Amino acid sequence: MSFDNLYWGDIGAALAQTLAMVGGALLLTVAAGLPLGILLFLTGRQQMFQAPLAYGSLSFVLSIIRSVPFIILLIVLMPITVIVTGTSLGIRGVIFPLVVGTAPFFARLVETALREVDRGIIEASLAMGASTTQTIFRAVLPEALPSLLAAITVTAIVLVDYTAMSGAIGGGGLGDLAIRYGYHRFQTEIMLVCVAILIVFVQLIQASGNRLVAHFSRK
After folding, report:
1. Is residue 152 part of a domain?
2. How far apart are the C-alpha atoms of 182 and 120, rounded to whole Å?
3. pLDDT exceeds cutoff 60 at 142
4. Are 194 and 163 in contact (CB under 8 A)?
5. Is there a domain that residue 1 lies in?
6. Residue 31: inside a domain, yes or no?
7. pLDDT of residue 103
8. What is the pLDDT of residue 40?
């Protein structure tokens, strides 16, 4: 095994693809998962819009999606992905299933974060005449910000894992490179480099997330 003749250009391009997939999917996941999490919170037990049927139905659908292994979800969603994006390959073809796979997970984290907010803050906000929207956006979300940042960090790490798995069906990125060269062509050194880069990437995400959570947490 030699590291002298690595395809550094391909590795750099694959890293750029992974960054694009994680960044794009994370933005869309937060955009989709945050409203879902808020809705779960509001319709939950003893909340402002308690609605057991709505909560149970939404919770059931999200739980089903979360129960499907991501590699299977990629395959199942291929026809829909082609309709939505025009392709099931590359960055464009992977971001849609990435969002579908992680948005329910992030929504649950959001619900948990909002439930941890002191009930007295909500009651005080409503007692002062604030509407539900004002209470959520001016009291609950700011109070839950450290937990939400931690949830985003965890979701970003999950996305790194999922992008690596998407390489199995031609999704691009470091996972695809590791499979094509490291597995199919028995170039173990390329696989090891890709794994090392992914480990460093995850550690950077975790460290950055921890710093943000510490910065916004109350001392």
Report:
1. yes
2. 55
3. yes
4. no
5. no
6. yes
7. 96
8. 94
Q: Is 109 within 8 Å of 67 (Cβ atoms)?
A: no
Domain that holds residue 67: 8-216
User: % helix / strand / coil in the chain, to the nearest 5?
Assistant: 80, 0, 20
Please count the structural domains in the chain.
1
CATH code of the domain in which 79 resides: 1.10.3720.10
Is 156 in contact with 73 (CB distance < 8 Å)? no
The distance of Cα 149 from the centroid of its chain, to the nearest Å, equals 12
Which residues, other chains included, contact 192 with Cβ-Cβ below 8 Å and sequence gap of 6+? 182
Q: How crowded is residue 64: how many other Cβ atoms within 10 Å of its Cβ?
A: 10
Q: What is the mean pLDDT of the chain?
A: 88
The per-residue pLDDT for range 39-72, each reduced to its tens digit, is 999 998 878 888 899 999 999 999 999 999 998 9
> Which run of H or E residues covers position 63?
helix 52-67
DSSP track, 114-181: HHTS-HHHHHHHHHTT--HHHHIIIIIHHHTHHHHHHHHHHHHHHHHHHHHHHGGGT--HHHHHIIII
The pLDDT-based confidence of 174 (bands split at 50, 70, 90) is confident
Instruction: State the pTM of this model.
Output: 0.91
